[in-house]
Amino acid sequence: MPAFPHVPSPSQASSGVLTIQDALRCQLPERFGSSLSLLLLPRMRRDGIEAMTPAERICYCVVSLDKAVTGGGFGLFFINAGGDLAFETVRALGAIGADRVAQLLARAMDAFPEGGPSPCSVDRQNAMRRLGDEAFMQWDFLDREYESLHQSLLGQLRSYVEKNAAEFRPWSESPAPIR
After folding, report:
1. Quick one: pLDDT at residue 83?
2. Residue 178 domain-assigned (yes or no)
3. Is residue 10 classed as helix, strand or coil in its secondary structure?
4. Which of 46, 55, 91, 134 is deepest in the core (most CB within 10 A)?
5. DSSP letter string over 91-158?
6. 35 lies in which domain range?
């Protein structure tokens, strides 16, 4: 038995294949989220979001938000590539039943002029430079609210994955097939 049964084993890692079942075997919510990241982030980088199934895409958005906000707050989410998909992330949160977190993200997006953050990271980061202190203070407040919802969000994400497990493809390091 591996020393940490809640993370993929070295044999799984060395075989280059990670499945949604590996992630679902993780009992600790944070480990589940990390395993889901290990499955989805490499695929996103290699193949792009357009190549993901709807369930993979929803989970990618939620995991990207969660990693950023727990790692540095809503400001970090908007600086990072996850912010490119801010509007889609609101819909993804709704799809997994995380309406309160969706409302928090929508409130954080309200700090941006012209209807919300740009999907272009350069434009969004330039807009962030022009935001006043009030926006950052609001994000700090929302970050604290998010902390109180974090565990339930991971539970909602797990439930969504369990119901939609058939939509997740195994990740391997082999290149995507040419279509």
Report:
1. 95
2. no
3. helix
4. 55
5. HHHHHTT-HHHHHHHHHHHTTSSTTS--SSHHHHHHHHHH--HHHHHHHHHHHHHHHHHHHHHHHHHH
6. 19-166
Q: For residue 13, is it within any domain?
A: no
Calculate ∠ Cα 25-31-35, nearest 5°: 70
Confidence band, pLDDT 50/70/90 cuts, at residue 130: very high
List, for residues 15-28, the tens digit of each pLDDT value: 456 777 777 787 77
- Is 34 contained in some domain? yes
Q: How far apart are CA 33 and CA 153, in angstroms?
A: 10
Q: In the Cβ-directed half-sphere of 171, how many Cα atoms lie within 13 Å? A: 25
Strand 171-172 and strand 17-18: pairing? antiparallel
Task: Enter the tokens of residue 6.
Answer: 């809640």
CA pair distance 134, 13, nearest whole angstrom: 45
Give the position of tokens 């993804």: 92
Query: Are the beta carbons of 147 and 6 closer than 8 angstroms?
Result: no
Residue 172 — very low, low, confident or very high, per pLDDT cuts 50/70/90? low
Min mean pLDDT across 37-41, 50-54, 61-65, 148-152 is at 37-41
Total of domains in the chain = 1
Amino acid, res. 178: I
